[in-house]
Design goal:
Helices cover 74% and strands 0% of the residues. It has 23 helices and no strands. Helix 10 packs across helix 22, helix 11 runs antiparallel to helix 12 and helix 12 packs parallel to helix 15. The protein starts with a helix and ends with a helix. 42% of the residues are buried.
Length: 460
C-alpha cells in the first residue's frame, strides 16, 4: 500500500504539469488573438494561422449596419436593464440563495441527528459555523491588527473593515454582521454573474451558472464570515463593468478585490482584455496611430491601477509592523506557508489522502483537495478551446498561484471563489442531462461538506 501511495503521489503531479502546460499553450494563443478575432475558438484559430491569414483588424467589428438596427439594440438593452426586470432577477436570486442556505442547514441537522449531536448544533451554534479563518476575521473586525495577535496580519483589511462598519449598525453584533456582509455579497455576486454570462451565452446558461454557484460543493463558505463571497462579488463586478466598457469603475472594483485577497490582482486580466477589444473596435491603429498608442497607454494604466488595493495592504503592513512585506514572515511563522509549487501541493495532498490522520480529516480535507486540484486542471484543459480566453487565463493563473503555498489546507474553499469555474460549468452543462448530473453531484457534495464543516470541523 505504501509503495502504491508513493507511486501515485509522484505520478499525479507530473500528469498535472502536462495538463497545465497544454491548457496554458491553448489559452495564451487565444488570448493574444482575442482582440483581433473576438470569440474565435482554438480550432478555427489554428486553421487561420496555418492558412497564413493574419489576424488583422477588419474595421469596427461591432458597428451596426444601419441606424434602425442600432436603435433596436439600444431599446433591447434598455429593456434588459429596466428596473422591474432587475427586481425580478434579484428576487429569483434571493430565492435560490435562501433555498441553498436552508439546504446547508438541513444537511448539518440531519448529520447531527444521525450522530446523536443535535443538541450541540443549537446550544453551541456559533462555534459550529464560525470556524477556522472565520473566527480570525471576526477577531480582526473586533480588535483590529492587535499587537498580541500577529497572525491577524496575514488577513487583508477590506472584509473585516466592512464587518466592523456593519457591526456598528447592528449594535455591536460582529458575528451577525459577518453573516450579513457575506450573504449580501453572495446575492450581488449572483446578479453580476448572471449578467456576465447572459450577455454572451443567453439567459438559460446564465441562470444555470448562478444555480451552479449557489449549489457548489463549498458554497457554505459564501455565507459564513469568510471573505470569499466579498472577493467573488468584487471580481465579478469588475468584469461586468469592463464588459460594459466602464474601465475606470472596473479598475476600482478590481482594486477593492485586491484589498480583500491578494489574488485579486488577476482582475487585471479581464479588464485589460476588454479594453483591448474595445480599442480594436475603434480601429485607431489604422486611422490614427498616435491616438491609438495614447489610448493603449491609458487603458494599460487603468488596468494596472487594480494594484492600488494591494498597495493599501502593504501600507497597513508598514503601519502595523514597520515593513511592507511583514505578512510574508507571519505566513511562514504562524501558518507554515512560504513559496512552493502546485506540484508539491498535489503530491502531499495525494499522500495525506491515504494517511492524513483521522478519517474525518481525510474525507473533509485531503481527499477533496487532491481531487479538486487535479479535476480543475483537467476541466480547464477541456474548456480551454472554447471558454473566453481572459476567463481561461484568469482561471489558470488562479489555480496555479493559489495552490502553490508550501502548506495548503483549504484548497477546495479557495477554488470556490474562482469565478471562471461557474462559467465553464454552465457551458459544459448546456445539455439537459449534463446539467442534471452536475447539479446532482454538486448538491450531494454540498450537503456532505456542510455536515463536515459544521459538526466535524474538518473542512478548513
Amino acid at each position: 500500500m505504501t509503495a502504491f501511495v508513493n507511486l501515485l503521489s509522484a505520478l499525479v503531479p507530473w500528469l498535472l504539469a502536462v495538463t497545465l502546460i497544454c491548457s496554458l499553450f491553448i489559452l495564451a494563443l487565444r488570448f493574444v488573438a482575442e482582440p483581433f478575432a473576438p470569440g474565435i475558438e482554438f480550432g478555427p484559430l489554428v486553421r487561420r494561422l496555418i492558412d497564413r491569414r493574419a489576424l488583422e483588424p477588419q474595421g469596427p467589428a461591432l458597428e451596426e449596419a444601419s441606424p434602425a438596427s442600432r436603435q433596436l439594440r439600444r431599446r433591447l438593452r434598455r429593456n434588459e436593464w429596466a428596473l422591474h426586470t432587475q427586481l425580478r432577477l434579484l428576487v429569483w436570486i434571493l430565492c435560490v440563495m435562501l433555498f441553498s442556505r436552508l439546504l446547508n442547514l438541513a444537511a448539518a441537522m440531519v448529520g447531527s441527528v444521525l450522530t446523536g449531536s443535535l443538541d450541540r448544533l443549537f446550544t453551541a451554534a456559533i462555534s459550529h459555523w464560525v470556524r477556522w479563518d472565520a473566527a480570525n476575521y471576526i477577531d480582526l473586525a473586533r480588535l483590529g491588527y492587535a499587537a498580541n495577535r500577529p497572525e491577524l496580519l496575514s488577513f487583508l483589511p477590506l472584509y473585516p473593515l466592512l464587518v466592523r462598519f456593519v457591526a456598528t449598525l447592528c449594535l455591536g453584533h460582529y458575528v451577525f454582521a459577518g453573516f450579513l456582509v457575506s450573504n449580501v455579497s453572495l446575492m450581488i455576486a449572483g446578479w453580476a454573474l448572471y449578467h456576465i454570462v447572459n450577455s454572451q451565452y443567453g439567459e438559460l446558461t446564465a441562470r444555470r451558472a448562478v444555480l451552479l454557484m449557489m449549489f457548489s460543493p463549498l458554497s457554505l463558505v459564501f455565507s459564513v464570515p469568510y471573505a470569499e463571497s466579498l472577493f467573488l462579488m468584487l471580481t465579478l463586478l469588475a468584469v461586468l463593468c469592463a464588459r460594459n466598457r466602464r474601465f475606470g469603475l472596473a479598475a476600482l472594483f478590481g482594486a477593492l478585490s485586491c484589498a480583500t485577497r491578494l489574488i485579486g490582482v488577476l482582475s487585471f486580466i479581464p479588464i485589460f482584455m476588454e479594453s483591448m477589444k474595445y480599442l480594436h473596435v475603434l480601429d485607431l491603429r489604422r486611422r490614427n496611430r498616435s491616438r491609438f498608442f495614447a489610448r493603449l497607454g491609458m487603458y494599460t494604466a487603468i488596468s494596472l491601477s487594480v494594484l492600488l488595493g494591494t498597495g493599501v495592504y502593504l501600507l497597513v503592513n508598514i503601519v502595523v509592523a514597520g515593513r511592507p512585506f511583514a505578512f510574508v514572515n507571519v505566513l511562514a511563522s504562524k501558518w507554515s506557508q512560504s513559496l512552493g509549487s502546485i506540484w508539491n501541493t498535489q503530491s502531499y495532498s495525494v499522500r495525506l489522502a491515504f494517511d492524513g490522520g483521522s478519517l474525518a480529516w481525510q474525507l473533509g480535507t485531503w481527499i477533496p483537495q487532491a481531487v479538486f486540484i487535479f479535476a480543475c486542471a483537467l476541466f480547464l484543459l477541456s474548456m480551454s478551446p472554447t471558454i473566453p480566453p481572459a476567463e481561461g487565463l484568469y482561471g489558470w493563473l488562479y489555480l496555479v498561484i493559489t495552490m502553490s503555498p508550501s502548506w495548503m489546507l483549504s484548497g477546495p474553499r479557495t477554488l470556490t471563489s474562482m469565478y471562471p469555474l461557474y462559467i465553464m460549468l454552465a457551458l459544459a452543462s448546456r445539455k439537459k442531462w449534463n446539467y442534471i448530473i452536475v447539479m446532482t453531484v454538486s448538491i450531494a457534495l454540498m450537503c456532505f461538506f456542510s455536515y463536515m464543516y459544521s459538526l466535524m470541523g474538518s473542512v478548513v
